[in-house]
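To close the chapter, one final illustration. This time we ask the reader to focus less on the individual chains and more on the assembly as a whole: which components sit near each other, and how the overall shape emerges from the parts.
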Amino acid sequence: MNIYLPIAEMSVNGLVVLIMGAAVGFLSGLFGVGGGFLITPLLIFYNIPPAIAVATGANQVIASSMSGALAHFKRRTLDFKLGFVLLLGGIAGSSLGIVVFAWLRALGQLDLFISLLYVVFLGAVGGLMLVESVNTLRKSRGGAVSLKRAGQHHWIHKLPLKMRFRTSKLFVSVIPVLALGAGIGFLAAIMGVGGGFIMVPALIYLLKVPTNVVVGTSLFQIIFTAAFTTIVHAATNQTVDVVLAFLLMIGGVAGAQYGAKAGQKLRGEQLRLLLALMVVSVALRLAFDLFVQPDNLYSLGPLGEF
Amino acid sequence: MKRMFLPVMILLALVGPALAQSEPQPEAEQAAPQYNESIQIGLSTDRITITTDFSGTDLTIFGALNDVDPQIARQNRYDVVVVLEGPARPVVVRRKDRVLGMWINTQSETFVNVPISYSVSTTRALQDMAQPSTYGRLSLGSAYMYLQPKDRDDDPQTIEEFTAALRERKQMTGLYSELIGGVQFLSPNLFRATLELAPNVPIGTHRARAFLFKNGLFIRETSAQLAIQKSGVEQSIFQAAHEYSLFYGIFAVALAIITGWLGRMIFNRD
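The assembled structure is written out below.
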């Protein structure tokens, strides 16, 4: 089933793309993340130009986040106020990210930068999660441990401009919330991810948001950041391939439901361990490409416009 | 794999010798003053549409020679080269080097007016037909075509290296192709050229050019235009993405939100 992608200007096997979307959707349902960090590298491995993989990945993330956020909205595990503040930061970060994206593309260093960001962030987040989940699994044999150490004060809690977030039972300065949103928005624009895989641990460990609210809030925020990223990429770089995105979305939303079901059968620590292993292996694969001599040293690109 | 043939018929009878004689060619006059060869090609259509299942195709062009020397024709000493040249764009060629253990794009060279695609079909291998200098002068053939660097003052060695890399990359991706024996004479006057269009053939206005050689000497050239475009839906999407890019982005977002929402409704089994 060959499908011609009008923006990428190439033919792909539609079935492969659908399966790719479904597989990532399954995993994102299983782990409660958007799946952008898997989709973009997969598209790049499938020879889609990185610039198009990134922008189209962002578009796909909207659909899976929307699906997930609706479920959390129903369960009332979504902090709108926190999501909104994160979003304000996200829009600012995303705008900057898109400018940097266009600049790197013209410079011919976009592919390198995308790969580097993936290696660094996936490697770091995956590594930390791996260590944490292995420790938890070990300790859980002795007894239950909570992730959140109550009553402990962090330097973050000493910053001014405090704000109360009722759903999250949180009284914290808006500065780290805005900064976190901005950082993730920036990464979202360049990496084509929603940023859930960074947002979730950051909200849990840095801001001490209750775990049950984290995923819903992060997904809610990601819908808007990814939507903004998609629109700006479409308007400035014309790199959103709607046909490719749609195929991925269909596979994705279908896969996500089965993933969520499968997830209920696994324990939290086991899930985190699996996710960590997957994140680390994507990082290693990308690092491999970066450090091993490529088959061809020369590449062609369009003339960049500043 | 759908192959598309575009048979093109030329009405030989209509092409009078008088028409051909209106443009005398100095090289031809020396070789055989009594013959004034001319070449013509025709396309049955002036546009090809790329549909969703497009995976490359063969394009057939028919052409005719007029006022040929029967003796030379009998000895197969007329050669024809047919080229389908895609729209020209500036291209940046980048080279990766090892920096801190990583392979990073470092040096680059920009070329202007590089045809995106260049498909050649010949009666014989180019090197058997004429001198390389002839092809150089005509800028004919992917190996001889002149590629103009943007910055002519760059080190000639660097320019040469990147020019070679540009040709090599284009050939590897199938955008520059050469089909030896792709032009066949059906009669002393009539020939058929088969050209390979790669699955990633660029859209835009292509130029079909036919070159006539006699005894290894260039006689005459003719050309015709061919528009390659995406079919209805693909074209609309491409146009929308470039002309109404903001609305296109908003549409993409709306599509994603609706798909996500519908997905939730359809698969919801809570």
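The two ends of chain B are 44 Å apart (CA to CA). The longest helix of chain B spans residues 245-267. With these observations in hand, you are ready for the problems at the end of the chapter.
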